[in-house]
Amino acid sequence: MNPWITNSFLDSCAFDPKCHPGDQAAFELFRLHETEHLGILLAHSNEKEVGHPNTPAWVKTRAAGLIYTTSVMLTPGEKSRLSRIHAILVGNGKSENVEDDARHVFEAQKYGSFGPTAVEA
After folding, report:
1. Rounded CA separation 30/8 (Å)
2. How much is the pTM?
C-alpha cells in the first residue's frame, strides 16, 4: 500500500510519544507530512483527546491543521464490526478502557486503506 495515495490515521499519542523509538517515528511522520505531503488524518474520536485540558498547546496547534473524520450514523454491519473490534481490544480487560481505541481502529479501517478483513472473522 502506498501511503501517498491512501489515508493514514494517527492516534493522539503520536503527537507526544514518551519513549524511543516512538518519538523518532512520530517526528518522521510529521516531517513527511510537512515536507512530502504525506496525508495524515485523525478520527473524529481523537478530538476529545486533543481537546483535553492537559493536552500540550503545541499538540493542539498541530492537530488543528489536520483533517478529521466526521461522526456519522453506522450501518448495522458497521456497528457489528465496531463491536468485534472492541471485543478484541478488551480481551480480559475493562471495556471502558478501550472504548476510544476501538473507535479509532474502526475509523481507520473505514476511511483508510486498512481493510476490515482482520475483524470480519
Report:
1. 12
2. 0.70
